[in-house]
C-alpha cells in the first residue's frame, strides 16, 4: 500500500513539473554568487546564490532574489512551479521526499558547473575583525545564464525568520551560458552595483 502511495505521489510530482517546463520558455538571468570566508576558522568558504532577470537590470539599485540550488523537497519544487508560497527550510510531513529524479539532478549539476566555469568577479571586500583577530573575505561573482526557473513568494514562516519579503527562485531546466552579456551595457550597469547591500546571509 505504501509503495503504491509513493508511486502515485511521484507520478503527480513529475506530471506537475513536466507541465511547467512545457509552458515556460527559457529566459535570461544573472546569477550572483557570493563567497564568504575567514582567515582564521574552520567554516571554509560559504556560498550563497542570488538571481535577477536581465530585462529588469537598471543602471543602479538592482534587486536580486534568493536562488536555491539544493535543500528543497519535491513538495517545495512542486509548490514553486505552481506559484504557491514556499519556505525551503521548514519541513512538514509533505517534505519527506527528496528524490527529484536522475534527469533533474543532472540539470542542477549542469547549472552549478556553468556558474563556476563562466563567472566573473565584480567586487571583493576585506573586513577586519579585531575581536576575532581575523579577516573576512567576501567575493561577488556574476554569471549570465539562460534557462527556466520557477519563482514563488517566500512563505510567512520564512518572512518572520529571515526578515526577507519577496520572491525566491528554484532552477528547473534548459540551462546554458550567455557570454554575449559581458559585451553589453547591462553588464557595465550591473558591475557598478554595490553588492554588499544584498543581505546574502539571511538564508543558510
Key phrases:
alpha+beta; six-stranded antiparallel sheet; 204 residues; globular; 5 helices; single chain
Structure description:
The chain has helices at residues 2-23, 74-81, 102-118, 156-162, 185-191; strands at residues 27-38, 46-53, 65-66, 120-129, 134-153, 167-177. Residues 1-14 have low confidence and may be disordered. It has one domain (2-196). The chain has 5 helices and 6 strands. Helix 1 (2-23) packs parallel to helix 2. By secondary structure, it is an alpha+beta fold. A hairpin with a 4-residue loop joins strand 4 (120-129) and strand 5. Strands 1, 2, 3, 4, 5 and 6 form a 6-stranded antiparallel beta sheet that branches.
Q: How many DSSP helices? A: 5
The multimeric state of the shown protein is single chain
What is the beta-strand fraction?
Answer: 25-35%
Q: Could you give the count of β-strands? A: 6
**Rough shape?**
globular
- The span between the termini is 37 Å
Q: How many domains comprise the coordinates?
A: 1
Low-pLDDT runs of 5+ residues are: 1-14
> Order of SSEs, N→C?
HEEEHHEEHEH
Radius of gyration: 18 Å
Let me know the average pLDDT.
86
Structural class of the helices, strands and pairings? alpha+beta
Largest sheet composition: 6 strands, antiparallel
Helix content: 25-40%
